[in-house]
Amino acid sequence: MTSLQDRDSQYLWHPYTQHKTAAPPIAVTRGEGALLWDEDGKQYIDAIASWWVNPYGHSNKFIADAIYKQLTSLEHVLFGGFTHEPAVLLAERLMPLLPDNQKKIFFSDNGSTAVEIALKVALQYYYNKGEKRTKIIAFENAFHGDTFAAMAASGISFFTEAFKGSLIEVTRIPVPVEGREEESIKALRELAATNDYAAFIFEPLVQGAAGMVMYEPETLDTLISICKANNIFTIADEVMTGFGKTGKKFACDYLEQQPDMMCLSKALTGGTIPMALTTFTQELFDGFYDDDVNKALFHGHTFTANPTGCAAALASIELLKTDEMQENIRRINRRHLLFKEEIEKHPRVKSARVLGVIFALNIDRGTEEYYGDFRNRLYNFFIAKGVILRPVGSTIYILPPYIISDALLDTIYDTVKQAIEEIV
Fold first, then answer.
1. Where is this site: Participates in the substrate recognition with KAPA and in a stacking interaction with the adenine ring of SAM (predicted)?
2. Residue 237, marked binder
3. In terms of residue numbers, what domain contains 71?
4. Is 301 annotated to bind ligand?
5. Residues 143-192: pLDDT tens digits?
6. Are both 42 and 68 inside the same structural domain?
7. Is 300 among the annotated ligand-binding positions?
8. Residue 302, marked binder
9. Which end of the chain is less crowded, N or C, counting CB atoms within 10 A of the terminal residue's CB?
């Protein structure tokens, strides 16, 4: 019988993959909790929650039952000119969890489109007012997605090199990591004074794809305050950090100042159905509310506010709010902190950091390519050991499902320690 790997190779093109040099993809046939199994029966620990989307475990029965129930009454209806109970209920359940200034929700399909909408809204808001603000501010080494505006806002150059000259204009400022706070603040102040910028977009407190780069909320508060004083909208890309990853429901919960827009996806539906949200202040919505139809936001997706996805999101939010899940988040954080205390003493570890359920360490190797040989040897080592981790250069990070057991966490930690000793 032909394997799934062989059948896959006939037709499928995988993301972030150079197919000429990459190993065949692992053919997964089943998942349960924090575990996955391939077609040969090998077990893997999903130590990154399948790209940060699956906090409540694979094949979660509570979410599956909610999806099934919804499918028996309404699987989908267009959202242009129509509405439905799951979308309205999701908005009603989500709004109390968001910062108080968030008043409106726009549905889309994934993190990139959530960002795309936020950037379009910021630019069109000023266009509708007859003001010329056509530029965006973003952090260095940011990642906001792969659609065109989201890609423009991203600062990982080899992702966007082929599209230079085709993107909106974005100016980057330093990430305010320890020691660079004032440099970042000064750069933003200088840009804000020009009145050329419509928005400042950021990953709050943690830059995920850059290697879990972390910075403090106090500096971000200062940056948001500068933007507010200069009528620059602020966009919090919480696609990765949202729904408990940082130890609070949203990374913005650590802030005194609040963004004008938030982008949410990934864990929104518990890893089941693609869905995203962009949320807005009333001021932004009002900038499109006009007798002139041309001032409307002409953006939409076929599966906008898909009822089945809304049902999955409602179930996911219900799980997040349980005492059990909140204790799981605290438990993982405690375990990560203990592992950090141990591993940062290792002579090959340059630094280690923890926020919520996110753990990251940097191996002391100097500068490493994002998808370089050292990273690939680390990745292959982890896969051979049955642990799914995707290093970024010389950075190893762990971001597990909230339901993971202590025993499986110990296996992940032991495998990381072994990798640091053996992969040089």
1. 16
2. yes
3. 64-320
4. yes
5. 999 999 999 999 877 778 888 878 899 999 999 999 999 999 999 999 99
6. no
7. yes
8. yes
9. N
